[in-house]
Amino acid sequence: METITSLSARSLQYYAIAKKWSSDLEFYKYETRFLRSLLDDCFFNTKSTSDRTKIAEINNDLLELDVDKNQLERSLIEQLKELELMAEDVIPEDANQVAGKQIRLEYMVGSLFTDYKDLKRQIFSLVQKISGQDRVYNHLSFAN
Fold first, then answer.
1. Domains along the sequence of the chain with CATH
2. How confident is residue 1, by pLDDT bands cut at 50, 70 and 90?
């Protein structure tokens, strides 16, 4: 896409940042798929009702994050398409409009990934707790 270089330096920077965020969202999809499989394994391997309830709550929180992720993804696609159209001189470059959208995107990205990091901490802590319980149960079963 050599036409992208016809953008102003600021718009080109916005384009590069939006592409990075899109890449981060792709990784997010793979990572959440893995985390969901961990939670599923824990759900079926724990005997604790409170742990099962916590897993269900975390799964609901992941679903809510997915709604935010989908909105962010749509907004990123819109921003990238608009910047590409500007680069191809199909529409005039409007630096103020692009900047406003970029600020909104930055807020959305920051919010999503902050919430996601907090949720990952909860998941890792719960998985570690449940895995530790499994080791104790297995150790007690084979102690004789």
1. 2-135 (1.20.120)
2. very low
